[in-house]
Design brief:
The complex is a heterodimer of chains A (about 190) and B (about 240).
Chain A: H1 3-11, H2 15-37, H3 40-56, H4 66-87, H5 93-97, H6 117-129, H7 132-143, H8 148-155, H9 159-179
Helix pairs in contact in A: 1-2, 2-3, 2-4, 3-4, 4-8, 6-9, 7-9, 8-9
Chain B: H1 4-8, H2 10-21, H3 27-39, H4 41-58, H5 82-105, H6 116-125, H7 136-140, H8 181-196, H9 202-234
Classes of the chains: A mainly alpha (about 190), B mainly alpha (about 240).
Chain lengths: ~190, ~240
């Protein structure tokens, strides 16, 4: 069944159609939450909250990219969670954000072979070190593979803002990796 | 040798490198950047390092979901609309008003209590001819403060209860309703109940419920008209 039809049926209250959309997009939503929060349990909670919220407000979806709409919901959930942690740091935010050990081992697929574990952890640390708006745009563009237009829709900002945030985010990440010695400008993995 | 104006433009061109990697610059910008890159080693290094960074990010594995996130709860049960609630409220209020009014018209509620003296007279006329009369003072307590003997025993016969004459200075105490002593208690009890006038304030309740009915009915009309207007706009 086409996505548009699933969306249309979901808007009419068909939960089975909505759950088909959930199955299609749950991996993207969970991965965005995981990269933003760097904590599997928090990402799981954010993902569940996202789909419940999407189901409740499906009639408010006004067209465009459904994936971008879902990702905007999970991005808001993650922002709220990060804000909450800043206000009430039960654990240190730095530890929480940049703790790749909190990533579930079982979540890694065979693609892991493409990058060695150490380098991957450095990249996660680098992502966690970025300001949240730059981190979000880098994840959306370079990990989720969204277009500039979809990112603009997800983040509710202009294309110019997307370009500048992405440019700065990539540069910061590159600098971080260079400083950690795990990456040189001329090297190609 | 790199012209000076190109060196000065390095900062501007570097901002174009990221969208250049994504193919999101115009043809003119692309030509200008490529000609600059051809002559600027630093900007070429910048491009190379950013390309590598993006390449690493592209190769990051996607985590598998730990579980399914399908929504298992059904659509929340439809909450009765405010319109429906108002309709019910006004209907119930109107029904109560109708029932109360009908009851009032049929006189099923107790009449308003007569004045105590009238009630007393009515009760008295229904009793036997008085055999004696006595004052409350005499019936209640003897002069010594002790209770009189059980008067119910001698209810059917004439009694000679010593009734002390009121003292010269004593105020006159109203005479109790005459009658057989056995009925005296009953008479007193019924008089007391009548005097209390224990009945529902039907009229006030009617007015209050009528007010509620009018308010809810007005709200129903307002909500209904607003809904009509909105649906007309939607159509």
């Amino acid at each position: 069944m086409a996505e548009d039809e699933l969306i249309q049926r979901s808007r009419q209250g068909d939960i089975a159609s909505f759950n088909q959309l959930v199955i299609i997009y749950q991996r993207s939503v969970f991965n965005l939450a995981l990269r933003m929060l760097s904590n599997a349990q928090a990402a799981e909670d954010a993902t569940q909250e996202t789909f419940l919220s999407a189901w409740k407000h499906i009639t408010g979806f006004r067209g465009g990219s459904f994936k971008a709409w879902l990702l905007s919901i999970v991005a808001n959930c993650c922002r709220d969670e990060l804000r909450r942690l800043k206000r009430r740091p039960v654990v240190s935010l730095g530890d929480f954000e940049a703790n790749p050990d909190s990533l579930p081992a079982s979540t890694c697929s065979v693609e892991d072979d493409l990058l060695n574990l150490e380098l991957r952890e450095e990249i996660y640390h680098g992502l966690a070190s970025l300001p949240s708006d730059q981190r979000l745009v880098v994840i959306l563009s370079d990990i989720q593979g969204l277009s500039y237009e979809e990112i603009s829709q997800t983040m509710h900002c202009s294309l110019g803002t997307v370009k500048s945030r992405l440019s700065r985010g990539r540069a910061h990440l590159r600098d971080f990796l260079k400083q950690r010695g795990t990456f040189t400008g001329s090297s190609s993995s | 040798m790199l012209p000076k104006y190109l060196k000065r433009d390095c900062h501007r061109f570097r901002e174009m490198i990221s969208p250049y990697i994504d193919g999101r610059i115009t043809q003119d910008e692309k030509q200008a950047l490529e000609s600059h890159l051809a002559s600027c080693h630093e900007c070429r290094q910048e491009l190379e390092s950013l390309r590598n960074t993006v390449g690493l990010l592209h190769r990051l594995p996607h985590a598998e979901v730990p579980r399914s996130f399908t929504v298992i709860e059904s659509k929340p049960a439809a909450v009765p609309s405010i319109f429906g609630r108002l309709c019910w409220a006004s209907a119930i209020a109107a029904l109560i008003v109708v029932l109360l009014s009908a009851g009032d018209l049929l006189h099923i509620y107790p009449e308003k209590s007569a004045r105590p003296s009238e009630q007393l007279a009515i009760t008295a006329s229904a009793t036997h001819t008085p055999n004696f009369s006595m004052t409350q003072k005499g019936l209640g307590l003897s002069s010594g403060g002790t209770l009189p003997e059980d008067i119910s025993k001698s209810s059917s016969q004439d009694m000679a209860i010593p009734i002390p004459s009121p003292a010269a200075g004593d105020p006159e105490i109203p005479t109790m309703a005459p009658g057989p002593v056995g009925e005296e208690n009953n008479t007193a009890v019924s008089t007391e109940a009548a005097n209390k006038g224990h009945r529902w304030p039907v009229r006030q309740i009617e007015l209050a419920v009528l007010g509620v009915a009018v308010i809810t009915l007005s709200a129903v009309i307002i909500v209904w008209r607003r809904g009509e207007r909105l649906s007309a706009k939607g159509g």
